[in-house]
Design brief:
Six copies of one chain form a homohexamer. The first copy, chain A, is an alpha/beta fold. Chain A is built from five helices and nine strands; from the N terminus they run E-E-E-H-E-H-E-E-E-H-E-H-E-H. In chain A, the strands form three sheets. Chain A has a four-stranded mixed β-sheet with strand order 1-2-4-3. In chain A, strands 5-8-9 form a three-stranded parallel β-sheet, with helices on one face. A two-stranded antiparallel sheet of chain A has the order 6-7. In chain A, strand 1 and strand 2 form a beta hairpin. In chain A, helix 1 crosses helix 2. Chains in contact: A-B, A-F, B-C, C-D, D-E, E-F. The structure holds calcium ion (12 copies).
Chain lengths: 192, 192, 192, 192, 192, 192
């Protein structure tokens, strides 16, 4: 069935779409976080069969962007008159955990700023309200999945660097890693 | 009882009604997605004993139409002052999964544009917020059900083409397939 | 106890009250659907220990009436400033399933148009948003219950005609059947 | 503990308090339904550890009073700017079932009209939206409890008359029964 | 751990704090009910790990105070523009039952009138919407806990007097009891 | 995996971030409470996989600050036009209990006053609506975790002093303890 198939990277040649890395019972995979906005009243809609922790990541991402709008040239955005929608295909697969935080943050920021996302880039990391990127689990599986999907660059928390260094280097060939501490660094690297 | 009876195709000679393909424990079947709109406040009502994943498909479909209104000549539609209702008979049968996404999208678009849907056409496919049509499961069972119900044309994700090619050709006689990548292609084919 | 007693038909000499047919573990029975309206904000209240599928029938009925108001001379009704209440006695008995759809539709239409319902008439059938009447189960048990309760005429989906023809004719004596395809036919027959 | 103690009748020398009859696992008992109103927005608050069916009775009672305000001289009541609260002591005891319907109706009507309730009167019966009083169970246990509590008159559905006639007359001494068909009869008997 | 420690009475030298008596699996204890108000829209917030029945007591207390504002010199209070918060420490201990009703009533009334609560006073009793104080369970355990906590006076329902008289008098030395019938008596005794 | 890793203290060189002490099945740990505010309507959003009791602590903290705004120079803050967000990383770890009360209070107060929090300071304690700091459990485990994380000062309830005195002094070297009774003392010590 389609629900266990490994996803292939596709050029996200639009704003609001970012490639994340997931770690499930059947191994690592890439996933896409999609964001759209419409005229509205500040409502955040979340779809894609997301668990509570993953939904919280989206809430944190939007809250951070609102509180730090001036850092990403969004100080003139009228957040109260927009609705936000974040979707993570594929709907048949339940998804949870905090590791899509950076991906959701980047999708929202891309959509709101109108800036596209760097090609062949994927990311994984928990976010916090004060702007940190925290380490996440399943790094080895996620990296193998990224290679299979033709990813070239990966953004990780600096606290996941030791997990990468434990991996046999032959699996890392052709991959460039960005280790970050702050969420603002993610946006600097990802948005072109 | 009526709940296990196979549904027959009926000419949907009205706007807002689209034929989908379902795959349940008792095999494939066709289903109808019905859409109506009324003066309101942007509320989306979903009936027909739908599971959470299927409800999310409707949310994505409406969100996509709002964000891409100009692509389907709906730029003058006042979405905020309409209520939307999507119903999937039959109420006694629980339904779930993402595969009715294209069907819901087309029902909403048909109702809102006032364009009827091509006769003897059915469809199945997951939709995403950025406009893609993703592959779904149960293709063989769905196609057999479509033939029994007198369907002539079927829209599928291009990624389901391999599933069709695995089917013995004698079961495909008299059926025309449309393989699509984008949601906008579905509307181009389906709305007359 | 009173909860297993079979209900008797009573002249519904008021608007907004319609006789339906129910099929439960303890056999067939008639039931009454009662509707009242008050000045309000468009809210629909449902009581009578109703399951989710039965509640959805009421939502579909109201939505259909709003979208087709001009077909039943309700084009001047200010639906947004009315509250609607549908109750199905008896509260101690849980009720579910889609077969009260036509009964709920007729109760709402009777209350809103001020037209009473034909005497000694009962009905059972699922409704859809586009206006169809779908077949339901338990036809034999429902018909026996209707006879016991002194019902003279019954409205059914045309797709339930075969179920009636399977019944020994001696049980059908004194009963007149109306087989319908569309919801509008139900209202034509039922409202006097 | 206090939760199994039998309640004694107390003169309800205020408006909005009505004596009902309950039937639980530990036998019959009387209960009080208390109603208060405050300036508000039409909200109905229900307390006293009430189950869903019992809550529905309160909703039906209020809806009936609103729709029939002119029958009980409440046509000038501004229901939309009042909040309603119905409480059934004792909070430690879960309560459910439709039989408090007439009691809730009378409590609301007493509070809203300012008319007190006849002394030494109790009642039990399900209500419907069109104004009927339906029979309820546990009649024998309820009557014995009423006698113990010093009740002198009891209102019942006319369809519970047969249940009273099955009781040994010695248990009925000193009790006067009112058998009613319509909810308006209850209010005529109960409100002084 | 702290959750099983017995609480000591502390002078509640502020308005809105009242000492109650609790009865749990590990015996009797005193508890504090704290109330604060802020500018708002009439919302009642309840914290302290409270069960549904205990939450209902707070709803009844507030409703009673609103409906009887003139009896406690609150006729000029603008209830619709205040928010109310009742908290019962300690959050780790689940609490339920109706016996904190009088305590919640007194805390709200103290905060709203600005009158402090008599020192070394505790209370326990269920409240009803019409203003009665009903008896509660665990009287012996509650009284022993009150003594341990240095309480000098206790308010109880007059229907709990028999429970006090069953206790060996040596346990009652130094305690003064107030037996009340009406909620207004509680406020007369408690508010200084 | 990252979820069992012990957290290290990091200089919270921003407002709205406070270090707390947690006690879980796998021992003691430090945690961070992060607070942000945005233009809004008084809504409080809580993320970080928090249980009901921990969420209640945040509600109490905000309520206390609103009711005592003048004590911390916030009398001009327009609470009704702000939204509040409290987050406790790490999202994969469920968290509950009342002991983060002082930490949440301090995070909110720091954000709203713009005052930073003293460096190398951690705290643990339940809060109440009237302003007390109550003792909490797991003191030994929390203190060991604080030392490991390089904490230098700890705020505790005065009722936890005995728990500290039971610990072998060699584990307390280099730690300074602040024993407090009132929430306002916490803010005096913590906000620089
Ligand atoms: Ca995949
Ligand atoms: Ca991920
Ligand atoms: Ca079917
Ligand atoms: Ca389908
Ligand atoms: Ca019946
Ligand atoms: Ca029926
Ligand atoms: Ca009782
Ligand atoms: Ca009763
Ligand atoms: Ca205690
Ligand atoms: Ca108590
Ligand atoms: Ca940690
Ligand atoms: Ca803590």
């Amino acid at each position: 069935g389609p629900s266990h198939a490994k996803t292939k990277y596709e050029t996200n040649n639009v704003t609001g779409v970012v490639t994340g890395l997931a770690w499930t019972r059947v191994g690592g995979d890439i996933l896409f976080v999609e964001c759209s906005t419409n005229k509205g009243k500040g409502k955040l809609t979340l779809t894609g069969n997301l668990g509570d922790v993953m939904k919280e990541s989206a809430v944190i991402a939007l809250e951070y962007i609102k509180a730090n709008a001036h850092h990403i040239s969004l100080e003139d955005t009228d957040f109260e008159n927009l609705d936000f929608h974040i979707h993570v295909p594929e709907g048949a697969t339940p998804k949870d955990g905090p590791s899509a935080g950076v991906t959701m943050l980047t999708a929202l920021a891309s959509k709101l700023t109108g800036r596209k996302v760097k090609k062949y880039l994927a990311m994984t990391g928990e976010i916090t309200l004060r702007g940190q990127v925290l380490p996440v689990g399943g790094i080895k599986e996620k990296i193998l999945a990224a290679k299979r999907a033709n990813i070239k660059e990966i953004i990780l928390s600096e606290k996941n660097q030791k997990d990468v260094e434990d991996i046999n280097p032959k699996y890392l060939e052709g991959l460039k890693f960005h280790y970050v501490k702050e969420m603002i660094e993610v946006l600097d690297i990802a948005l072109v």
